Amino acid sequence: MLTSAIRDRLQAQVPPLAGRTMLAADFAALVARNALPQVTPAAAVLPLGMRGGAGAAVMGQVRQAVTRRIGVVLILRAPDPAQARGTIDIETLAEAAQAALSGWTPDDGTPGVLRLDAGELRSLAGGVLLYELSFVLDDVLIETE
């Protein structure tokens, strides 16, 4: 799965996110309980959707271009002032996540590479900063007729 591959890549390439990166269902459960991670930084990888493009039937196969959208929500709690020294800031974390994912492909069978689409502050509620990076990946669906 694409989101699992992205989670694994973030954990391997961005040391502050190692062991602290979750998928959509786990993130949804935390949000439902109003219990975002106490230990941060953390991240959640979410499938944001996909958009179909042109398709064609060729030699018994239907091929259709697809653009997949993936979100990476970075979670950062406000630091305790006594422990603020040495804490990571959101810009550094976002840049590290972007560098780990931009230009990378989850497997050799995918024709495209991840491209940064946008970065956006989502929330500052309750002393927790949520910042979303969205990426796009060009892919092809192949169906046998």
Automatic annotation (TrEMBL):
InterPro entries: Phage_JBD30_tail_term-like (IPR056912)
Domain of life from the UniProt record: Bacteria
Listed name of the protein: Uncharacterized protein
Pfam families: Phage_tail_terminator
